[in-house]
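Take one record.
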Amino acid sequence: MTEPCDLPAVTVRALIGERKLSPVELMDSCIRRIEEIDPAVNAVIARSFEAARATAQESEAAVMRGDSLGPLHGLPLGVKDLIDARGLPTSFGSVLFADNIAAEDEAAVAMLKRAGAIVVGKTNVPEWGAGGNTRNALHGATGNPFDPDRSAAGSSGGSAVALATGMVPLATGSDTGGSVRNPAAFCGVVGFRPSPGLIASNSRNMAWLQISQLGPMARNVSDACLMLSCMLDRDARDPLSAILHAGGTPVRETYRDPPRTDLATLRIAATCDFGFAPTERAIAETFRKLATFGSAFRSLEWTHPDCSHADEVFRILRAVAFLGRHRELAEKYPDKVGPNIRDNVAEGLGYSALDVARALSLQTALYRSWQQFFGEHDFVIAPTVTISPRPWSELYPATIDGTPTKSYFHWLALAYAVTNAGHPAVAIPAGRDGAGLPFGIQIIGPRGGDVATLSVAREIEALLAANPETARPVPDLAWLRRQPPMSGRPGFLDFD
C-alpha cells in the first residue's frame, strides 16, 4: 500500500481538501519516513516534529470546520539550511553558526507557510552552499539515496534526498551554479531555477547580482509548479523582484497549472556540453541515446548558444559574491571555515576592479548572444550534470575522463552556462545513466519564459515516464533501512 508521504503534493492536497486524508496522517507518515530512512542518508539535520504535528492538528481542524484552505494546506515542507525558517537553526553548515536560530522566516518561506505548508525540518547543505557536494564539518555528509557512499550533489542536496525518499513532498532550494538542478539530477527529482526576480529574496547581501536564485524542488513538475505559484510576490527588499513585478504579482493560477504545449511545434536545440563544459563521455552517450525522443519535436538541432568566456564570467562573479559575504569570516576564523570558502575568498582578493568590469561586460555580451539564439530556437535541452554521482569522500572531481578540472566548481559548467545568461531552467529525471545511477536533463527556456519552460518540462516528463527505462527512478527504501548510519562512515564530519 502506498504511504501518504510517497504521494505527489498535488494529489495529497486534493485528498486533504476532499477530507480523504488528514494533515495529521500525512505529517505522521513523513515523520516516520524521516525517522526510518534519514540515519542512512543524513538529509534532515534539524527537526521540528512537535511543532509540525501541532500545526497539522490545526490544519485538520480547519478542514473539518470547512474553512477556506490555502493551496498548500497541510503539506509538510523541508527548508534548505541556507534559508531562514523562524524558530529553527540556520547554521549554513558552518560550525560558527551552530547555535544561530532564525528570528523570522525568509520571505519565500513566509509565503509558503501562508499558503498552508508546514515546516518539518531543515535540510543539509555544503558549508555556506559552497561546492556541489553536500558535506560540512557541523552536520556531516549527506549520502545519495541510491548509494549513500556517493554524493547527493549540492548545495540543495539535503532537500533532494528528502524528496527522493519521501520524507517531504516539497522542499526549498537555491541555485547559483546549479545548486537546485544538480542535486535534483543526482537524486531523481525535479528542481527549478527561475528567471531572476521571479521569487523574491530578502537575504542576498548583493541583491543586484543575479547569479543566485531561490527555487522550488519536488518529485514532479506539477508539484514544483504548485509550490512555485505560492512563492510569487513583489518584495521591495529585492530590487530584481521589484522590477520584474512592477506591474503587480503574476497570475498564480497560470504558474500553478501552465497551459499545455504541443511538443510538435517546438524548435529544440540539444547540446552535451554548451561547447565548453567537461562532460564525461558516458554522460554524453546517455544523453545522445535519450535524445532519440527528438522525433516528438518540430525539429531538434545539435547546437547551443554562444558561451564564450563562460568559465571566466562565472569564476569572477562567483568569487565577488563570496568575497562580499565571507571575507571577514575567512580572515577572522581561518581554521573554522572550509577549503571552498577559503579558496573563493582568496581568489576574490586576487581580482582587480578591471577584472570585475571585464567579467560584467563579457556577461552582457553573452546574454545578448543568447537572446539572438532564442530568436531561432524555442528551448534548449542538455544533461544537467557533467558526471555520474561519485563518492562524497571526494570533495570535488579533480579530473573528468582523465583531464584535470580547472576549479572545484568546473564540473558544474553545464549548470552555470545557464546561470550566466539568467534564463529559467528546470531539471527533470530521465532514468538512469550507464552506471545505474539517476540521470537528469535540464530544459532551458527564454528569459522570462518560466511558465512556458515548466509547461514543456511537464510534457517531456510525461514522455519519459511512459518508458520504464527513462521514467523517474525510485530509491529502494527497504534496502536503505538496512544500511548503517551515515555518521559511522569514515570522514563523515571532515571536509579537508
Summary: The two ends are 44 Å apart (CA to CA). The chain has 16 helices and 15 strands. The first helix runs from residue 9 to 17.
